[in-house]
Structures are given as structure tokens and as C-alpha cells.
Design goal:
The complex is a heterodimer of chains A (312) and B (233). Chain A is mostly helical. Chain A is built from 10 helices and 5 strands; from the N terminus they run ααβββαααβαααααβ. In chain A, the strands form 2 sheets. In chain A, strands 1-2-3 form a 3-stranded antiparallel β-sheet, with helices on one face. Chain A has a two-stranded parallel sheet with strand order 4-5. In chain A, a hairpin with a 2-residue loop joins strand 2 and strand 3. In chain A, helix 6 runs antiparallel to helix 8. Chain B has a single domain, classed as Ferritin. Chain B contains 7 helices and 1 strand. The chains are: A mainly alpha (312), B mainly alpha (233).
Chain lengths: 312, 233
């Protein structure tokens, strides 16, 4: 225990010597001091492993404590240390303000729906009735099926009358994507069998199918949303077979998303931009409830996702 | 920010103190700690200063550890590949550099994230093995000819996507680890699509991507790895 204490103090001391004196540093130092106290008082020394951040070396290191000595010390590089602000958003790429705002919007909408529910039949139906996705793995597959229905119909409309001045390359890409989405829809329909939801009604009146920007931007939104949906829903599946099937679909959706992003911003970092990949290199993942809210403007049929698993 | 860090660590500490009773509990704890440690480690690096976290997690997590170690090996291979390629003058055209800089950034972040997560579940990160990017002489022009470089990078990315898909089932018991793996998986797929576009080929092979087993992936990447492909587990 004493060895551990000695070891973890060492880089701290070094950091104090090296870092330039400023107000921010002293705040950090006091935080570390309190932290060291907390760690000790919490008896985290049950394990013989220790991990240590060494910002002055852009490294994180860890070691195994044997007989009061640190052995087998390893360290690995902290990427992109020269751009500190990006590390402030460690949990998600979305800034907290946006999330809070969308939460408020969601909370407001819920209150509105509860109060207006009796007056507005469609909202009331959406709350209690509507197409029920079901529960468990079936519910998650139905959720995916709903999204694939949305995408398949969207690309069917896109390819039925392409926007003016479309290049042969873009024509091929959009036709391919349509075929993939139809294949995904068919696959999920077959997998679900009688448990599958019926065909949903969609409303694409907000999309200008004659405009390249409108079509590609909507497509990009659908694909990014689809990827985030599968990423977020994977953990809710219990059957490894379904998980693998979802994995086989989601990487193709990610390929679509990257391609559409590249069409909108050619040869840039947009294909896996910082707006959808966070500082840890993790793509977006969202809960089914947020995804359904995001696509709600395009879905006419009320969907009831109340029975979906929320957490395993 | 420091408050947030302290809360995270206090939370981490209080949970670590609980002794896991079953295998499922262990995984549940791992899931929590993996990401929390990553978060707690990353946070102090923003400013200067240093934090130490003892990771108290029971050691019965062989499968998750082996899976993470395997993922780290692939990410290290990719990261080292792009780091080296971006240093070779004249290999990557100026117009495409931004793409590979973004990919290198993500691969480096994956190495960091997975190593931190591995430490978080009680594993121990190993030093990266030396790599031979010519694949044992199969691609001699990998760092002199841009087409060859693109071919090899597409192979790495597509293999990475298939590897994550094949390993996802091993993490099904831990929702946090699984989600992290899926999120990395989708980023790898984006990389693969973009590199394919740079090569002038279709970004996909069809409506469904294939999965590969660990053995199949190792068979594909072992020519690029000198020494032991699978590290101590």
C-alpha cells in the first residue's frame, strides 16, 4: 500500500514541477490532491493494478504492483493532446447544451401530449395505441424494420425520378443504396415473420426530390440516424445471432453514410467527421426513443415503442 | 470539470469496493468501469496535473480481455500503418491527406480507448509487436506506390470491420463494451468506404457485410506482424 502511494505520487510531483504556474493549474492540483485522498480512503488498493495519467508526457501508463515494487510498467499515447477542447466532450460528440435543449424539448412535448392527449385524437393514439413494436429482441428487430421501411421507401422515391443533372456515379450509388435498403427490409420482414409490424405510412413532403442538396442531405441524415440506431440498439439484443445480423447491416449503413457525406463534401474529413465521431473514435449511438423522435417528422403511422427493452 | 472528475472517480471507487459475486456481476462491473476509467483518465489530461486510479476488478474476465487485446492488435497495426504512410513524402497526394489524417486520428484514439478499457477491466496492455507493412514481401511498394498503399489500407479497414463483427458476440454479456465495439465498428466501416472511394471502387460489396472469426482475421494480418501475432492472454 505504501509502495502504491509512493508510485502514484511520483508523476504528480513531476507534473507539478513541469507545469507552468497559472490559476488553472493550481485548480487542477487541488483537484488531484483531493482525488488522491479519495482514492486512498475508498480502498482502491484491493487490486495490484494501478493506472496513471501523465499529461506532461501525453501518456497514460499502468503497472502491476508486486512486492511493493512497480513492475511491467506500460504506457500508451494519448492521441490529439494538442487540442484539449475536444477532450471535454468525452462521453458524446454532442455538446451538452444541445442535449439539454433537446431534452427540454422532449420534456415539453411530453407534457403537451399529456395535456392535449384527450383533445387531440392522433396524439392520444400515439401515446397508447399505434403500431406496437413489441418487446425484447422482437421489439428491437421491429424497430430496425421500421427504419429500413423508411429508408427503402425514401430511396425508391429518389430513384423513381432522379434530381436534375445527376451524374452517372451518383445514379449508381443511389440505386445501389436503394437495393440494399430493400434487401434489409426483406431480410427483417422474413426474420420477424408473423411478429413483424405492418407496412408503415411515411410522409416525405418535406423533401424536395428535384433538389440534389435536399435529397442527399435527407439521405445522409437517414443513414447517420440508422447507424446510431443500430449502435445504440445492439446492446439491447439478447440473441447473438440477431446481433450478428444487425452488425452485418449496420456496417453497410455506415458505408452508405460515409459515401453520402463524401458526395456532399468531397475529399474532406466529413465521411467520418467530428460531428459524428467523438474524441475516442467512437461513432454515434442513440437510444431507440431518440431515434424514433428524430425520424418522427417523416413517419405518419403512430409507433408505440413503450415495450422496447430500455436496458439489459 | 474537476468536480466532474472527482464525482466519476468517487462513483468508480464506491462501485469497485463491492465484491462481484457472479460472473455476470463481474461483466456488469467491467462494463461500468471500462468506460468510467476511460473518462476519468481522459479528463485530467485536459489541464495539467495527474490522477491515479487503482482498478479493482476481479480477474475472471478472460474472454473480454482476449477480445480487447485482439482489437488493440488490429488498431495498433492500422495506426502504425497510417502514421508511417503520412510521414512518407509524396506518397499520399495533398488532396487525400485530410482523409488519412482523420483516419489516423481515429485509429490512435481507438488504441488509446481500448488500452484504457483493457486496463479498466484488469487487463494489461502489451507493447505493440513490430510490423512489416509489405506483408512479408507481398506488397513491396506499399509506401512508394499510392495504389498499393490504398489496396493495403482497404484490406486493413475491411478486415477490421469484419473482425469487430465476428467478435461482437463475445461482448454480448457487457452492454458498455459491446456498444463501444459497435461504435468503433461503424467508424471502421466509414473508413473502409472512403478508402474504397479513393480507389475508385464501390464502397460496398453488397447489402450485407461479412463477419470473420479471429482465426480468419489473424490468417489475413499475420504476414504484417513480426513475432507473435497473439500476445500473452
Amino acid at each position: 500500500m505504501r509502495a502504491f502511494a509512493l508510485w502514484f505520487r511520483r508523476p504528480y510531483r513531476r507534473a507539478r514541477v513541469i507545469s507552468s504556474p497559472s490559476r488553472q493549474v493550481s485548480n487542477q492540483e487541488s483537484a488531484v490532491r483531493t482525488l488522491a485522498h479519495k482514492v486512498r480512503s475508498l480502498r482502491l488498493l484491493a487490486s495490484n493494478r494501478a493506472i496513471c495519467a501523465e499529461p506532461h508526457k501525453n501518456r497514460v501508463s499502468c503497472g502491476i504492483i508486486y512486492n511493493r515494487h512497480i513492475r511491467e510498467r506500460r504506457s500508451w499515447v494519448m492521441p490529439e493532446i494538442e487540442t484539449p477542447p475536444s477532450w471535454l466532450t468525452v462521453s458524446d460528440v454532442r455538446p451538452p447544451a444541445v442535449r439539454r435543449r433537446s431534452f427540454l424539448k422532449f420534456a415539453g412535448a411530453t407534457i403537451l401530449a399529456t395535456t392535449a392527449g384527450s383533445l387531440w385524437p392522433r396524439l392520444a393514439q400515439a401515446q397508447g395505441g399505434g403500431v406496437n413494436l413489441g418487446s425484447g429482441d422482437i421489439g428491437i428487430l421491429n424497430f430496425a424494420y421500421a427504419l429500413e421501411q423508411l429508408e427503402a421507401l425514401f430511396y425508391t422515391k429518389v430513384t423513381a425520378s432522379f434530381y436534375a443533372g445527376i451524374s452517372p456515379g451518383e445514379r449508381e450509388i443511389l440505386s445501389d443504396i436503394r437495393d440494399h435498403e430493400i434487401a434489409h427490409r426483406r431480410f427483417l420482414k422474413k426474420a420477424l415473420g408473423r411478429a413483424g409490424i405492418p407496412d408503415l405510412q411515411f410522409d416525405f413532403s418535406a423533401v424536395n426530390f428535384r433538389s440534389r442538396d435536399s435529397v442527399l442531405q435527407t439521405a445522409r441524415t437517414f443513414e447517420d440516424t440508422g447507424v446510431a440506431a443500430y449502435n445504440g440498439a445492439g446492446q439491447l439484443l439478447r440473441d447473438p445471432g440477431y446481433l450478428l445480423a444487425a452488425g452485418r447491416i449496420v456496417s453497410v449503413e455506415a458505408r452508405h453514410a460515409a459515401t453520402l457525406r463524401d458526395l456532399l463534401a468531397p475529399r474532406s474529413a466529413a465521411f467520418a467527421g467530428d460531428d459524428i465521431v467523438n474524441a475516442f473514435g467512437l461513432g454515434l449511438a442513440d437510444r431507440p426513443s431518440s431515434i424514433l423522435k428524430a425520424v418522427a417528422p417523416y413517419v405518419v403511422t403512430p409507433i408505440n415503442a413503450d415495450n422496447l427493452p430500455r436496458r439489459r | 470539470m474537476s468536480n466532474q472528475l472527482l464525482e466519476t472517480l468517487a462513483d468508480l471507487g464506491s462501485r469497485s469496493a463491492a465484491i462481484p459475486t457472479s460472473r455476470r456481476d463481474v461483466f456488469r462491473q467491467i462494463a461500468k468501469h471500462g468506460s468510467k476509467i476511460a473518462l476519468a483518465v481522459a479528463a485530467p489530461l485536459v489541464g495539467s496535473g495527474c490522477a491515479v486510479i487503482g482498478a479493482a476488478v476481479a480477474p475472471q474476465t478472460g474472454l473480454a480481455k482476449r477480445t480487447l487485446e485482439f482489437a488493440i492488435l488490429l488498431e495498433e497495426l492500422e495506426h502504425a500503418f497510417y502514421v508511417k504512410a503520412l510521414k512518407v513524402p509524396g506518397l499520399i497526394p495533398a488532396s487525400d491527406r485530410v482523409v488519412f489524417e482523420q483516419i489516423r486520428k481515429h485509429e490512435g484514439a481507438h488504441v488509446f480507448f481500448l488500452n484504457t478499457g483493457l486496463t479498466g477491466i484488469g487487463g494489461f496492455p502489451q507493447a505493440a509487436p513490430p510490423f512489416d507493412f509489405t506483408g512479408g514481401g507481398r506488397y513491396p511498394g506499399v509506401f512508394s506506390d499510392y495504389r498499393t498503399f490504398l489496396e493495403v489500407s482497404q484490406m486493413f479497414e475491411d478486415t477490421g470491420v469484419k473482425a469487430y463483427k465476428g467478435q461482437a458476440g463475445n461482448l454480448i454479456t457487457s452492454s458498455k463494451l459491446l456498444t463501444a465495439a459497435l461504435r468503433i465498428h461503424s467508424v471502421e466501416a466509414r473508413h473502409a468506404a472512403q478508402i474504397r472511394r479513393l480507389r475508385g471502387v464501390k464502397a460496398w460489396d453488397g447489402a450485407f457485410d461479412e463477419a470473420l472469426s479471429k482465426e480468419e482475421v489473424l490468417a489475413m494480418v499475420s504476414p504484417f506482424i513480426q513475432g507473435r501475432a497473439v500476445r500473452r492472454t
